[in-house]
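Incident log, structure service

09:12 report received: a user says their structure output differs between two submissions of the same chain.
09:20 pulled the input from the user's history:
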Amino acid sequence: MRVMNPIIGITSRQPVIKTSGGDLEAHVVNKVYTDAVIRNGGTPITLPPVAPSEATRIIDRIDGLVLSGGGDIDPASYGGKLHDDMYAIDPRRDEFEFALVREAQRRKLPVLAICRGLQVLNVALGGSLIEDIPSEIGSTDHSIRGPEVVNCHQTVTIEPGSLVASAIGEAEVCVNSIHHQAVRKVAPGFRAAGWTSDGVIEVLDPEDHSWPILAVQWHPEYLAVENDAASLALFSSLVEAARRKTRVS
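09:34 re-ran on a clean worker, output below:
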């Protein structure tokens, strides 16, 4: 009997793209996400933002979830303030992804939360964010762009025993940091478990390790293009946890 690959839902963003009908909004998942899932034995599907009430039925139909990167979360969601460098705020996407997180927590669905995804996780469960790292902390080391996104440039120290450390087998990893916001107050039920030298939180870890959730502030989907072992291990761990879920279901 053929074993089916686990279905991995990936949240999407909504840019304007050029088409034969002119400039139109689209629901987009960067190919590096889907490639990383496929490479590690999963079958990716795109999740456009729909009504939050649909989150339960969506979680019914997937085996794992990638909360992808993208624009900033509406600061009204966490009692924050607008900042001039915020971009691509999309409350509809925020509310949909918050609902996915809460349902995933209830079901203990395997999750890989990446960059914005980690921030979505934190805000959905009661945490808050630093609105802009450079203006508050003074560090500009987190915001690389262009071809350099496939290369690591910043070191993260990870708490031994955390789910992320266990997944990658290392307590220190070189990453590609691409964000101007970060966790301020950690959500109840989680703890900070990875930091850069300037004190910015780069890993969240659930207090309940029976929920297989890997939450990182960097972008392993880009580093996977260059066969970075730690990045591939994060996707492999997600897919394997999703596969175990399908065996139990």
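09:41 both user submissions now match this output. Likely a transient worker issue. Closing.
09:42 reviewer note: The mean pLDDT is 93. The chain has eight helices and 13 strands.
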